[in-house]
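stage 2 :: seqdesign
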């Protein structure tokens, strides 16, 4: 068995995801096939919590950015800066009641 396969086997027994096997080998510069469980334990106790915390923060930040991008892109939620609605332009000119009501609304506003 290669060193990487031994590290993966130790990861399985210690409950560490196998995707970190290469990182364990590089972090501790493992060249001998001895004491893999100790290296995996050290990684699990000292390095893995920081990695998982950083991944969770990145995921949370990405979700927040996606939500804010959706809200900004949704014009019903947030109109662009300086947006002023012109009711006369929004409604066709063949509707005679609209200009009258908009004039009254603007005076009362």
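stage 2 :: out
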């Amino acid at each position: 068995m290669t060193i990487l396969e031994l590290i993966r086997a130790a990861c399985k027994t210690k409950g560490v995801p196998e995707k970190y096997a290469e990182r364990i080998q590089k972090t501790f510069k493992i060249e001998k096939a001895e004491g893999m469980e100790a290296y995996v334990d050290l990684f699990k106790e000292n390095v893995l919590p920081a990695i998982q915390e950083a991944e969770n923060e990145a995921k949370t930040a990405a979700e927040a950015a996606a939500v804010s991008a959706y809200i900004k892109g949704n014009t019903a939620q947030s109109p662009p800066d300086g947006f002023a609605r012109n009711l006369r332009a929004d409604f066709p000119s063949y509707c005679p009641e609209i200009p009258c009501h908009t004039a009254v609304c603007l005076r009362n506003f």
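stage 3 :: structure notes
- The chain has a mean pLDDT of 79.
- The chain is about 70% helix and 0% strand.
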